[in-house]
């Protein structure tokens, strides 16, 4: 009986300890997830279990919905916050810091057994993905007569995804303008599975998911405005030649949440370690001054966004840093 009492007391103590564990709540972009998750794992080890970091993947749009309701401390975003989301945050009294964490080469992928696609133009991608293509452009030879009379199987980001917003803006000229008859998901692993299992498939998502699955996928070189076919890579992003699918990725931090020591410590830890983790998961780290600049914004209370509520295509690392410095 005494032993049972002891076990019961130990159970209560464990429950009490778990309840005391401080929690940092993060949600949003699946593109940013590999960086944030990597940082979270290291941070939790450093804190020896005293802080728990939860990281969801409801997409950039889904993440901002929660963030602007005050439900999360940090929102992962693969595009800047939009005017409607800014208004929602303002209405709920949520102020925020915008912190770029890396650059991504949004990657168009095909099945490695595909025998005919060596590169693709923005115009060809538009023919495939524009709203007018729905139910009409269903075979490869309809896009380019040199390609075979075979069905196109499409896999892409879900409507709550910042990747969906960025891709449609860059390729179709308008954010969220897309055909709807494709397999969509905010979980990039679902898209990896779809493309890797169908020889006629094409899809798109963040570079980290391609890098992790290179044995199952082939990245398509994109013909840039200068007529060069450029494959996604760190070198191409740094050189500014992987256009128009290079983009900055961010975390947004609730200003009120920064008053909690665990959130402040996590964000500082992320700014000091994001470059290392970004490189590990195959994104392009920003220059060191971008991360120190982010910490300065926190210390000086420089809240808000440098993008004015719009998603932008084609911004370079240098332009991003210049804007962030001027905030």
From TrEMBL:
CDD domains: PBP2_phosphate_like_2
Location of this chain's protein in the cell: Periplasm; Secreted
InterPro entries in alphabetical order: PBP_domain, Phos-bd, Phosphate_ABC_transporter
Domain of life, source organism: Bacteria
GO cellular component: extracellular region; periplasmic space
GO biological process, alphabetically ordered: cell adhesion; phosphate ion transport
Main localization category: periplasm
Molecular function as annotated in GO: phosphate ion binding
Coiled coil: none
Residues of the signal peptide: 1-21
Domain PBP: 18-272
Keywords from the named record: Periplasm, Phosphate transport, Secreted, Signal, Transport
Stated family: Belongs to the PstS family.
Task performed by this protein: Involved in the system for phosphate transport across the cytoplasmic membrane.
PANTHER family on file: PERIPLASMIC PHOSPHATE BINDING COMPONENT OF PHOSPHATE ABC TRANSPORTER, PHOSPHATE-BINDING PROTEIN PSTS
Stored NCBIfam families: ptsS_2
Name used for this protein in its record: Phosphate-binding protein
Organism: Inhella proteolytica
Origin organism lineage: Bacteria, Pseudomonadati, Pseudomonadota, Betaproteobacteria, Burkholderiales
């Amino acid at each position: 009986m005494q032993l049972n009492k002891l076990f019961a007391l130990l159970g209560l103590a464990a429950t009490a300890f778990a309840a005391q564990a401080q929690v940092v709540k993060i949600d949003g972009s699946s593109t940013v997830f590999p960086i944030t998750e990597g940082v979270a794992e290291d941070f939790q080890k450093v804190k020896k279990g005293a802080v728990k970091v939860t990281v969801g993947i409801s997409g950039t749009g889904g993440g901002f919905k929660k963030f602007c309701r005050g439900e999360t401390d940090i929102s992962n975003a693969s595009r800047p916050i939009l005017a409607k989301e800014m208004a929602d945050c303002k209405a709920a009294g949520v102020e925020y810091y915008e912190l770029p964490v890396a650059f991504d080469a949004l990657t168009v992928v095909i099945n490695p057994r595909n025998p005919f696609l060596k590169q693709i133009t923005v115009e060809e991608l538009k023919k495939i993905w524009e709203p007018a293509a729905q139910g009409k452009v269903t075979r490869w030879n309809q896009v380019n007569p040199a390609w075979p009379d075979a069905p196109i199987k499409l896999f892409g980001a879900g409507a709550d995804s910042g990747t969906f917003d960025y891709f449609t803006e860059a390729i179709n000229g308008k954010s969220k303008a897309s055909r709807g008859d494709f397999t969509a998901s905010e979980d990039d692993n679902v898209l990896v599975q779809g493309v890797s299992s169908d020889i006629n498939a094409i899809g798109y998502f963040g570079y980290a998911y391609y890098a992790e699955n290179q044995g199952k996928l082939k990245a398509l070189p994109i013909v840039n405005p200068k007529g060069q076919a450029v494959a996604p890579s760190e070198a191409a992003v740094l050189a500014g030649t992987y256009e128009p699918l290079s983009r900055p990725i961010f975390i947004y931090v609730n200003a009120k949440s920064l008053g909690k020591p665990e959130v402040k410590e996590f964000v500082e830890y992320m700014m000091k370690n994001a470059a290392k983790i970004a490189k590990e998961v195959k994104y392009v780290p920003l220059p060191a001054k971008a991360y120190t600049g982010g910490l300065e914004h926190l210390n000086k209370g420089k809240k808000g966004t440098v993008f004015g509520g719009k998603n932008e295509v084609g911004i370079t690392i240098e332009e991003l840093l210049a804007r962030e410095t001027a905030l």
